[in-house]
């Protein structure tokens, strides 16, 4: 029996359910004051989270839209899962998203050569550790940027109350600032130094956003690369300044741009510190076009692109973030109704191959390979996959309606079989990866290491 694919390659599995999960604004607050590392604990982080809850309310987030992870809850795995489930899976294109972190920042050596300053910045989660002269169990800016790029919301706001200065001392301690303007407060450096830690050669913000899809991210971080953010027993100066600026503007007219928010926060920090001892300067990074938006109503003037909805965005972003390219080709990329498609993949190395398809605007992806007839997907070096293959009892036929489709191939060295983990009956030729609770973050979890990818955009015309 031969099978064809609706919408070009998509054998759509319709899942009826009486329960509908509506997307909405989402905020994720992460605070780490307790570390497994010795002499690394920070005071006042619980106060930072409370202050940021107040700031989130000023920004329009309801209590039920705010999720917080504090101390032992804030492991690297839990932070990743919360970003995937709460922000990526919980927000829609019309919503706004907020991510906040308070704790140690640090740096590790850049291994993929994409950083002009030679280092990657990291957020240190509760289970951070030093191993072989570097930090492990930390959220690296490369991965963080990739995760943010998968958030479907029009506007994603990021606030980082941490530093990543190479001059912070490894043995963490409170430092009384006798000359500070804050009346003798005890200040704490929110950066972590370890033996062999690299030092940034350039100044800049914490997040270096790359081209992971729609440019809907803006980050306000507490300090430049060569500065130390300051915490106190009353909370971080950056977070206190942020809250004060939002509260004053909310009481006045709720008309405050991100540029103005940065300047007011910087002014508050300067008023609490002496410039030669503890001053630091907040940095805006991300999409500069967002910097002049009203922080209380950050609405983009343009709608997100067609690829910013559904599974298309996730697949394309993951393909773009791959460590190496996988050869992927087709007999053609423009089809008339009824024409047949043939796909060829050549990974070039031994590993596991998965081929997926997404149609513009749909919230699920179809697993083309492996499938019912070829369920094992490990390939030896030099092997190729051709779909349909010789003897396969199905065809990939272009079907109405006309439109664009995306084919993506992923190559991993660790076992990953999207067909076996997909949704659909055992007799289904193809199965689906959906945005259900079971599947949220599935691709992210399986592709968190070094993987390869290739992509093709197809079009069906009348």
Please describe the topology of this protein.
Blueprint: H1 6-9, E1 26-31, H2 45-58, E2 66-70, H3 76-88, E3 96-102, E4 105-109, E5 119-131, E6 134-140, H4 141-149, E7 155-161, E8 175-176, E9 186-189, E10 217-221, E11 230-232, E12 235-236, H5 237-252, H6 258-272, E13 283-286, H7 310-320, E14 324-325, E15 327-330, E16 334-336, E17 343-346, E18 351-359, E19 364-369, E20 378-379, E21 385-387, E22 403-412, H8 418-421, E23 431-434, H9 442-446, E24 452-461
Parallel strand pairs: 1-2, 1-3, 3-7, 7-10, 14-24, 16-24
Antiparallel strand pairs: 4-5, 5-6, 8-9, 9-11, 10-13, 11-12, 15-17, 17-21, 18-19, 18-20, 18-22, 19-23, 22-24
Descriptive keywords:
six-stranded mixed β-sheet; 462 residues; 9 helices; alpha+beta; eight-stranded mixed β-sheet
Structure description:
This protein is of the alpha+beta class. The protein has nine helices and 24 strands. The protein has helices spanning 6-9, 45-58, 76-88, 141-149, 237-252, 258-272, 310-320, 418-421, 442-446; strands at residues 26-31, 66-70, 96-102, 105-109, 119-131, 134-140, 155-161, 175-176, 186-189, 217-221, 230-232, 235-236, 283-286, 324-325, 327-330, 334-336, 343-346, 351-359, 364-369, 378-379, 385-387, 403-412, 431-434, 452-461. A hairpin with a 4-residue loop joins β18 and β19. α5 packs across α6 (258-272). The chain starts with 5 loop residues before the first helix and ends with a strand.
